[in-house]
Amino acid sequence: MSTRINPDFKNELTHFGKDEWNECYHCGNCTAICPLSKDGFLFPRKDLRAIQMGLQDKLDASLEPWLCYYCGECSETCPRDANPAELMMTLRRYLTSRYDKSGLAKLFYTNHIWEYVVLGLMFLAIVVAFLVFLPLKTDAALMVNESGGVMINSLVEGINAERFIGIIEYGDWTMAIVIALLLVSNIVVMFYKSVLSENGIRIPFSSYFTEAWQLVWNFATQSRFSKCDDKQYWIGHLLLMTGYTIMFILVVVFLPLFQIETVEPWWHWQRLLGYYATFGILFFLTIVTIKRLQKRDVKLKYSHPSDWIFIVMLALTTISGILVHIFRLQGMVAATYYTYVIHLAILVPMLMVEVPFSKWSHLAYRPFAIYFARLKTVAAEVEKEKSHKELVPAVGS
Amino acid sequence: MEKTRIGVYVCWCGTNIAMMVDVEAVAKEMESRQNVVLARTYKYMCSDPGQDMVIRDIKEHKLNRVVIAACSPRIHENTFRKALENAGLNPYMLQMANIREQNSWVHSDRIEATRKAKSLVAGAVSRVNHHQPLNKREVPVNPASLIIGGGISGITAALELADAGKRVYLVEKESELGGIAAMLDLTSPHFYSISDSLKTLIRRIEVHQNIKVYMDSQVKQINGYVGNFNGEIKIGNKKVKNIDFGNIVVATGLKPIKPETIENYGYGVFSEVITSLDFEQVLKKGSVLNAYGIKPKNVAIIHCVGSRNEDYKPYCSRTCCMTALKYANMIRSALPEANVYQMYADMRAYGKHCEELYADTSGKNVLFLMYDQREGMPIIEKDAIGPGVLIKFNERLSGEDIEVPAELVILMTAMESGKDAKSISQMTGTSLDANGFFIEKHPKLDPVSTTTDGVYVVGSCQSPKNIPESVSQARAATANILATIAKGYVEVEVITAEVNEDICCGCQFCIQVCPYGANNYDQRKAVSSVNEALCKGCGTCGSACPSGAISTRHFTDKQILSQIEGIMAEVGSG
Predict the structure, then answer these.
(1) pLDDT tens digits, one per residue of B234-244
(2) Chain A: which residues have CB within 8 Å of chain B?
(3) pLDDT-based confidence at A154, cuts 50/70/90?
(4) Would you tell me which CATH number, out of the four given (1.10.287.1080, 1.10.1060.10, 3.30.70.270, 3.30.565.10), belongs to the domain A9-99?
(5) Distance (Å) from the alpha carbon of B261 to chain A's nearest alpha carbon
(6) Domain residue extents for chain B
(7) How far is B336 from chain A (nearest CA, A)?
(8) CB contact (8 A) between residue A46 and residue B362
(9) Closest CB to B362 among A1, A4, A22
């Protein structure tokens, strides 16, 4: 069955990234230099070709953009400055919008004004909700206990401590469930497009379980990234990712641990983990911000609006979080309250918009792509072995 | 008759010969031979002192034959012939024995090599006894030239010669001058209007007092040899004109193949499919429309149609890649919204400013799709859902089987040799290669001459060429011709065949075997005769003659047999 080419397709991609793919004349140096391009998953040249020719189904089914860690070596090697690394980034944005059936991801990527509008509206909604329904008590300034902890039960007007904590916690968990459902549904779409819709592929049922460790292992260590030649980025990225994940789990899943009135000593595990996470996030953010502004690194020369939204939102969340922490330790009740409200008003829209619909989704897609790629490899190996077995008696007779 | 006095010189060639051959022993052995007056050795016979030694000996010892045992005669025979001439001796009184390439370089046993050297030199001594003096012949040159073909090559050659004040006969089989170039709109890679330039050149030809143009005409017969040709030209349907000229420029060009023969492209079946020359006419009209008068949304340009494919033409047609890029540019400016596809087997952007055009075009949203010339030629069929045709093939850079809709398909057809190439090659005594193109004398060092003196092949009759290449070749040929005319005469080969008319039985076998068309049959005398201006002295007729009537000067039976006798005779060992 032959595919009808669609040269107009590449116009759809122009908003997802920098369109330098017309420059490519297919020497294949990018694929040859890439240490990750192997075992039947070859990139980035083939994906670039699929864009030029408008082979949309092939691109939709492609796992390769997630298997790439954007080390940028291909772009440095490219004799035509076609920037294949940026192309892989573009494809990740495109695929994110394809997995998301709501159309929001596509809207945010192709018209980022909408992203600002949604983020802004959610920010306002949260601020207004707090000021109207949970305003600061007028005499809150007095309510600080011996250890410096702010007494929550006397912080906000007209509500007791348990109700307040409950509202925050249930809101938090609802958000986590919504995000998780969105991500899971997107991953199902990804699985359908990349694995199930491929003709003639039969995944052995047992391999779904035997290969599952890939998911956890690659999520936790990003060991695939370590195979890129530039190890610094792997370490930096690992710092950011572990920091972010620790923080995410702490505040989203174990929020009740924080909603207490006592202040733990600095060596308490909770505080140490928090400091590690803060350091990891700030350290990598600073480096990436500087490099993106310098535009010296080939791979960080071009920044999509979504890259900046990612950096700015994360930075604001982290800084507001640090301020809440400082104000709380200092017993500055009003300052704690207002920075806390602002912190939430940044954090919640960031998670709600960025995780299922934008750049942060790669946190989930990457390990699943590696898992799915592994399943396909196993299926191919089984198929090969089977055809080999069928051949053997034929040769013998 | 003067007594034969032979001088023998054995060269050391530094150590090249002396290391494997005892040169002194060879010289000593020769001293005792009949008619040998002296035998010497020297380090480098070809050096000035070596040649001076020969000249001095000829004068002092009254030598009238010289044998030089040294390297291959291909290297230094002319050197020593000149030396003999300087000493007042006929240059053909020399015989060389090759004891380097055929002896010292290939042997490892010094005793055996020395014995072989003695035999070879003995053969030369034996042969030189029978050498006859031969005299060089010069023939005057007719300054007029015949140019066959009025394309860009022929036009250029005609104007060059005519501007130099020489008479030119320009024969064109069509009713218009200009050839293929006249069918083009713009050139590539520079996008000049070739028709404008051609109009000026043609106008100059028409009014030039030194040029006689024969339109709708064909050369029917050519006789004679360099400097003195004679030809018959058929003008129109009946009139035959006889003209004399000294040189011939063959500029018969080429023609596109018939794309109907390659069925998968559907030329003649689908009106959407046209050839590149068809498209030039479309461009000349000023707008890009297909056969239905519709502005196409998708234009496909298919490269290598019939080129570089063993089933059709194995060679590259050379001009199509750049022409295809030119089309992409012109379509892009005429139809900014259209999709333009280049379906190619390999892109060849050789030459000045061509790679630049390729790079420039690839940046203009032109999609380059690669197909396999041997196994994956595109197949064109009717599009079931769209208005035009579908082009199906396996795209090599993606590995995908694809189909491309198009409302206009341009076939970059291969170019093949003109249909009268064969008859003209026979008339002019030149050869064609396996593809029917004229063969030049040397592909690198003598690219416009042929093995027939006075006949030049220029432009696309040699192989597909672009305009600058054709113009350069035409000018190169005219430079050669003008040099010959300036000299006033040409030297012709003296080592030629001769017919003993008393023995010749008139079987005409020699005429059949002669590769140069130099043998003629004299009806009145009923014997063969040799045109010495055409004869190259190859000896084919001499060995073919059943009655032994033909002998080749300087290679007579007597000379060859005596050389064999000399080689076979006993020589002293060591």
Answers:
(1) 998 888 999 99
(2) 1-5, 7-8, 22-23, 25-26, 46, 49-50, 52-53, 55, 58
(3) low
(4) 1.10.1060.10
(5) 26
(6) 6-134+558-568, 145-253+418-490, 259-416, 497-553
(7) 13
(8) no
(9) A22
